[in-house]
């Protein structure tokens, strides 16, 4: 069976793509067709290729000729051909795409259709150039079993061992693609011990037919039609090969659709059309809503997804969108952000439209074919069981471990491998290129409102969603999922992929997950959404230089995740983390701060805040500084390090002492002091605070500022202590509201006196109308609860006027006053008192 695909143009302004498909024609027989098309469409781009079957107007044809003409109104075509050399696949690809990439950026194609004739399985290296240039490629390898008669057409010439590419360029061109895969790798690995060309003779030193009979029918002879559903899959020289049985040989060997080399390890690949049928309905429905002008399908020759000429399963679904035209290939091309893959046992499509902004009208819902099949879940079960066994084996803490019970490597609640398993893999197998740590930020709230079982179930749902998304061939990466803690999942990536592409993958995953609805255990109608923070760590940087030892990936990924949450970002990468100081530098900082404490060089700077309506100063926030070698140093350089030592408590006590002295000396001054949860958990600090309030009647002149994220996490424990200090006259301010996950329920229960709006939602309020609305709503909510509001990061006049108009109570920022030394700030109050 043969297929010829062509692109044509009848006029310079009206581009016409022509698909010509035929069966049983030799190269000699096809020649008259190429001559005719050249005469009929002399200005067209005419391409095509040989194939066993083709799709014509929604029907599957095994004979005849099909011609498809496609007209572009606002797009134009670029095209080129180049020889294909299997021994120099990467160089062949570069030669094919070089003329396209040499074009100016406006003339770079939006999408490519590529056709290749090759007597061997096409190598992914052919598309290596697509990884560096993000090319969107569809197409396939010419496929007939009589490979000596396989060919591709370019203009009026028929080629063998040649590649043809057509690039579609258009400002208004929109394209959608997807790949549907119906295969599952099942069972253990088997060694090819004897093969010759496409004939496989022995597997594990047994006749190949005997292996098929042993595993598929307990030793009974099986039909070829049944065996055709079970290909053998392997990866050889970085090429995925899926070989389908074509005929039984008399000596017990099997003729396969692809050559499997001796020494290769293979697995059974089960092909079942109904396996993923229900899961693709939303994708096809979305495609239907876009109303594409045309859909071109590239289907695997091994897929028997038709009865007679009538398509079944996925072809039937796609036909509801638009009558299909396309071909059956010996390898389908599909692009993702990680480059272009040569796929097998897959259906890929390219949907094009130049009228995406036109009214779509009523959309008919896609009707799911009534195909009930109990085998699909069963094979999914078997496949997942073998995958779990392989991942567990790869994650053993010691490569020579002979432990008979490895339950300690698995989390019993979710079925995922656990932290010990991950650490074992990181320490013993040098195969992890990237590690992502994903945390559910609202996990505590879910625990409290729905129970621990519900929260655990949601984590399992999240793990299932991640595994399903990452295991699709549209992504094509090797990965393993782990449960790290109550609300954290880790995903290790074992493929050598650029960090920027892995970063985009997990950023999109996080966005998609936060838009998903997850159900509770007891009531399906209770749907919850998850809020995530993601940290990604890579072993190598963007230039391929070592960035992190594999054994440190978990530490770096967790550090990146914390950084993402602190800075209110969905994901952060270890390559962008601030440079960490060395051990020697850390010790040096500890010595410097200890010396500063001894010499009374821990100092306070004060940044005033003002009434937004009167401009009157209300008070000032005490800000930590240190005098090091005669210079005033910001706490950003040392505070995170010092929090890990006993010096942090001494710093808090020093700042408290400075505030006490000022409050007692200046009876009308108001001061705000920053405290963390660490201060309330430290016995000496807590004792000092209680003694402070016994000695001083602050009467609302001292405000304790507590970071919102910290206070909510420890609300039940910290709330009584806060109530004790408020009863003694202190005010409570929740700091950094809006910087992280803001739990309004706990905020209301905490009932602070002041809500400080973080700079991240204030600094661009003069340019972002959405932030204006957000601040307005927060302000109205706070006022309705009797809570005053204070805005940080007031850095220009426009921002200040916006906040004044919104009637935020207090304003603070460099536009009003930068932090002042204690002497300068108190001097202002002395002048006021003198007057």
Automatic annotation (TrEMBL):
It comes from the Bacteria. GO terms for molecular function: cyclic-guanylate-specific phosphodiesterase activity. InterPro entries: Cyclic-di-GMP_PDE-like, EAL_dom, EAL_sf, FIST_C, FIST_domain_N, GGDEF_dom, Nucleotide_cyclase, Rev_trsase/Diguanyl_cyclase. Pfam families: EAL, FIST, FIST_C, GGDEF. Residues 586-833 form the EAL domain. Transmembrane segments: none annotated. SUPFAM superfamilies: EAL domain-like, Nucleotide cyclase. This is EAL domain-containing protein.
